[in-house]
Amino acid sequence: MEQIGEVIRSLRKARKLSQQALAQQYGMSRATISGIENNTVSEIGLRKVEAILNGFGYELVAVPRKSNRPTLDALQKVNFHD
């Protein structure tokens, strides 16, 4: 969420929107927008975040994390071929 907040803040500032203006556009409070941007809001619905990002022409997607740890499939292939 921290990265999403940073993205939303930079997009908002690039469009010269105040937190209040963005909040009004999406029916949220200014405090909610501030919490999203600063990663201090305890819970925020994905639909709200997605709506804001869509409004800026972005989409919310999930990507696999990069990890140095082998996956279960990789371990099975190694053990299966030994």
UniProtKB/TrEMBL annotation:
Gene3D superfamilies: lambda repressor-like DNA-binding domains. It holds the Pfam family HTH_3. CDD domains: HTH_XRE. SMART domains: HTH_XRE. GO terms for molecular function: DNA binding. Residues 8-63 form the HTH cro/C1-type domain. This is Helix-turn-helix transcriptional regulator.
